[in-house]
Amino acid sequence: EALYRQVIELNPKHSFALYNLAVFLEKAQALNSNKQQQQQQQQQQATTDGDDEAGAMTSSSKMGPEQREEILSLYERSVAAQPKDSIGHADLGRFILEEEPDRANKHLRRALDLNPDNEVALYYHGLHAFENLNDTAAAQAVWQHLVAVNPSHVNGRRRLGQLAVRGEDWAEADMQYATLLEALLDGDKSSLAGEGGCERSASLLASVRAEVFSVMAIVSKQGSGERRWRCFELA
């Protein structure tokens, strides 16, 4: 962190230092948030009164306004200094998607103009189409492109599996969840890069397994319980 700040002090338009400092600070905030969440969960488990106050504070304590503004400013300055950097546009779009979806999508689209195979931009562009535009077909097309670029992309496969379940396309859901579980069990952390990747992977694997069992419960209720899902061999 200190090195990046020194570089920026010498050259305020050093796009590499601006971008990497933003990434560093964002990861540091995420790690702190995860630690706080674990502590809150432990406190909740130790109580019997059902108090949800700690859980309610988790989201608001993930990142303070000052930290968020600094990180946002760094991403924006990085893109301004290097406007043809697909990665910078993608991460800026990802960072502001929840608060500013329209502006975020402009950066995501710009990232894809510069690099049509940018995985971050593809995932969050699909997320914008699904959550903000309610355009399932567009989201599905983007995520299909994503898994074509990276067949082991965990979140892309999971989203496609969820869409398949919504559409009651059980064969497609089977394929997506099976591939997803294979990627996790093979230790492919390409979509979980960064510190704490192993812990996040284990947590995601448990979550995906629970999700698959939930899907199978739905299938059974609909009279298709005899369908043998390959993904259960892995779960």
Describe this structure as you would to a colleague.
The chain has a domain of 85 residues. The C terminus is likely disordered. It starts with a helix and ends with a helix. With 235 residues, it is an all-alpha fold. The radius of gyration is 20 Å and the shape is globular. It holds the Pfam family TPR_17.
Short description:
The chain has 235 residues and is mainly α.
Looking at this protein, list some descriptive labels.
single chain; 235 residues; mainly alpha; 12 helices; 74% helix; disordered C terminus
Q: Indicate the low-confidence ranges by residue numbers.
A: 47-61, 188-197, 223-235
How much strand?
under 5%
What pattern of helices and strands is seen along the backbone?
HHHHHHHHHHHH
In percent, how helical is the residue content? over 70%
- Number of helices, counting only DSSP H or I runs of 4 residues or more: 12
Radius of gyration: 20 Å
What's the end-to-end separation, in Å? 41 Å
Alpha-beta content class: mainly alpha
Largest sheet: none
Number of strands: 0
| Coarse morphology | globular
Q: Give the mean pLDDT.
A: 79
